[in-house]
Amino acid sequence: MQAVSVHNRKCFFRRALVPGLLVATCALPFAAQAQTLRDKLFADPTNIEINLTYLQQQLAGGNFKGAAATLQRILLLDPTSKLAKILYAEVQLKLGNRADARLILQQLLADKSLPAAMRDKTLALSEALQRSEKRMSLSGSVGLAGGSADNALAAPKGPIMLFNDQPIANTSKEVTEAFIDYDGVVSLSYKLPTYRERALTSSFGVAGRDYIDQNTTDSLTGFISFGYSEKRKLPLKFNYSAYATEVSGHAYNAGQQGVFGVRVDLPKNANLQTSLRIGETRHFSYLGSSAGKQRDNDTLGISATYLRPIAGLSFPLLVSTSLLGDKSSAEIKHFSAQSVSAVVGLRTRLAKVNVSLSLDFLVTEYEAANTLISTKIREDERTRLTASLGYKLPPQFGAIDVALSGFAADTRSNIPNSTRTLSELKLSLRRNF
Question: What CATH code would you report for 6-133?
């Protein structure tokens, strides 16, 4: 064991750990170096410097179970380290071990020599602990966004369209439209008084879009949902939701859906989330026409999503991959379809800016041909790229979430009427409460 005095350990802890946590650049950059660090720790587990470096790597990679074990070793080496105790309480809170977190927070708050900054952090963790133990909680958010949509009316691209299998000139124009989005939601959660953690949730809200110049596609949707979740070896949840939408002030459609999901925790802080979805959509007679009711459908869908934080980088990175399959059965067969999609997503945080990027690929095949257009059965392939940058304003500015987001989508089809490109860019403000 390397000889390190208690005083030097404290100094090293503050000097090496705190700046690394603040700038999130505390992990070794390469997997080979990470393995070397683990080998060093195995060879000398009481070396506090190696433990601290390894802790930095675990926190950056989201490995909270491993960080808890490392912090226990650090506290054995330096039982008086207040920062280690604060980090240990925070990690235990993230892991859901509220009893352990409560005990160490009480000890810290009883310590009259605790520096002001550390006391503020301890009080914040204590308040978070109290919130997590409340049986009933109320939350919500309101959002407002403005942006521009290219091809807002989803016009097909290319010089021709089909009608009764005959080509005709495509006179549809791709219209660029400015819009305003708005939404609001209120959620209520109740934790059941049982040994195993179970919760009931409900929420309701509205979401809408108004185009500045064109008002034929302005929409407003009201929705409500009820959920149940249970923490166990395989955490599960069930959610039921229903909605109704009006377009330009006229009733358009309504639907409902039930989703059952299970999560499997995997090594290296990864997890696999699977879900089964069953739903239906019903259309109203829109502007005196009942043609939309031909699109009434029942749907069945399954999905699997794998999430894993990537360790060994100088910044936090969460990678997700998803596979989804859906089948809808409509009253008219040329509106019935089956689809398969794959999604790859990346999320990180750079200099207090949340960054997300996703790429998805969707293949859809319809069950029958729409003979009014073509005798061919429609087959579509869509590629879409979505990105967003988010930043939370300081409390003195209302703690408002500001985000710049957008997407670009390209749909290719064997029916030219269904070939189109869409894109959108918007700036949004959101206040959570």
Answer: 1.25.40.10
CA distances from 338 to 55, 360, 364 (A): 47, 17, 6
Q: Is there a shared CATH topology between the 6-133 domain and the 136-432 domain?
A: no
- Token pair, residue 12, equals 């090293």
Contact 353, 378 (CB under 8 A): no
Q: What residue ranges do the domains of the chain occupy?
A: 6-133, 136-432
Angle between helices 64-77 and 82-94 (to 10 degrees): 160
Domain 136-432 top-level CATH class: mainly beta
CA-CA distance, 338 to 328, in Å (whole number)?
6
DSSP 39-77: HHHHH-TT-HHHHHHHHHHHHHTT-HHHHHHHHHHHHHH
CA distance 230 to 336: 35
Residues 46/74, Cβ–Cβ less than 8 Å? no
CB within 8 Å of 42: residues ≥ 6 apart: none
What sign does the CA torsion over 390, 391, 393, 395 have?
A: positive
Contact 264, 234 (CB under 8 A): yes
Give first-to-last CA distance, the chain, whole Å.
50
Helix (H, G, I), strand (E, B) or coil at 261: strand
Q: Per-residue pLDDT tens for 46-90?
A: 677 777 787 887 777 678 888 888 888 888 888 888 888 899 998
Q: Which amino acid is at 365?
A: E
